[in-house]
Amino acid sequence: MTTDEALQALVSREMPFGKYEGRLLADLPGHYLGWFARVGFPQGELGRLLALMYELDHNALRHLLEPLREQRA
């Protein structure tokens, strides 16, 4: 998956399980992403996407996803 594809996935894919099931990955709260960072991200593509979203949140870069959201609207 390219970086562009990964960023698109953050604004289009939903969390498949847990407390925030059904919420877009880009809309997951920072404390939840931080929890994954502490206990470990899931294996595979979902884990990589959650780790990317964690980095965006942790570095205050969520705003970079706004143009992608607008494209989807």
Topology:
Layout: H1 3-10, H2 30-39, H3 44-58, H4 66-72
Helix pairs in contact: 1-3, 2-3
Organism: Noviherbaspirillum pedocola
Protein name: DUF3820 family protein
Pfam families: QSregVF_b
Beta strands, count:
0
Shape: globular
| Structural domain tally | 1
Please give the radius of gyration in angstroms: 11 Å
- Treating each run of at least 4 consecutive H or I residues as one helix, how many helices? 4
Distance between the termini: 23 Å
The helix/strand order is: HHHH
Strand content: under 5%
Q: Could you list the spans in which at least 5 consecutive residues all have pLDDT below 50? A: none
Calculate the mean pLDDT score and round it: 95
Sheet with the most strands, sense and barrel status: none
Pfam families: QSregVF_b (PF12843)
InterPro entries: QSregVF_b
Protein name: DUF3820 family protein
